[in-house]
Amino acid sequence: MAINLVSLISQVLTPQLVGSLARAVGVNEAVAQKLVAAAIPTILAALATTAAAPGGAQKLADTVSNSDPDLLSKLTGAIGGGNVGALGEGANMLSGLLGGSGLSSIVGALSQFAGAPQGAAQSVVGAVAQTAVGTIGQQDPSNWSDASSIAAMLASQKSAISAALPPELSKALGATGLLAGLGGLGAAAAQTASSTVSSATSSAAAATSAAANRVQGASSSSGFPMWAIILLIVIVLAAIWWFMTQNKQPEPAKTGMLQAPVETVSLPLPGSWT
Fold first, then answer.
1. Cα 259–chain centre separation
2. pLDDT value at residue 220
């Protein structure tokens, strides 16, 4: 019977366990559930990409082979006990498979998608990564014990992974190459991200061109070159400033003294002199 890793991992990470995980990493249950639901297909997509790369499938097969047979039960106990350190081990394991940049890309995209702190998102990624490895290890060894078998198993999961992966995450991770193992979906996501950047660049170029055309049109309609129009504006503004400063008369100083009244003296007429 064909297996569905997305469904199997989801069955391990029950709502009760996710509630304990939420308390352990310090987020509410709704955010933790959103993180877990998105992290499952994201991590499986990244593992499928690793398995499709040269040497990646063997590295992944060795990781599963060397994992603790009781990994899932121990992980459940660690989550229930709030042991965040154990979740960090899962993040380190995933970093070893994907590289540091791959882990940081996944954590950043999930953090933004779910609205969670990056530290909490990384702990959840560590828990889901360990659950994925533990779940693969519980399957028939013929499905994962060597490079070709584990690569084939993950390749068979493409449709289920693609269906569970939120479009927003596909767009966010499309340019990172982490979805390349999904084939068409990875290429479509990368194309979408590239188209978004190209569209933004084209819009900026169009706006710049339109502004330049408006300036050129104004210059052409006036019959003067643009530099002459700018120079004329500067000269007019300078003249206005000079006129205003020159015609501003200072107020007379107030001395604080009153003018003495002029006294009129009456003199006798010459005919009246004696």
1. 79
2. 55
- Joined together, the tokens standing for residue 266 give 């009456």
CB-CB neighbours of 77 under 10 Å: 12
Tell me the torsion sign for CA atoms 51, 60, 12, 121: negative
What was the pLDDT predicted at 205?
43
pLDDT profile of the chain (274 residues), mean per 10: 90 96 96 97 96 95 95 94 90 92 96 96 97 96 94 94 94 92 58 43 45 52 65 79 61 41 44 45
- pTM of the entire predicted model: 0.68
CA angle (35 as vertex; 100, 21 as ends), nearest 5: 95
pLDDT of 21: 96
60 vs 247: CA distance, rounded Å = 86
Asked whether 133 and 68 are in contact (CB, 8 A), the reply is no
Q: From CA 179, how far away is CA 191, in angstroms rounded?
A: 12
- Amino acid (one-letter) located at 223: G
Cα angle for residues 9, 122, 105 (degrees, 5° grid):
95
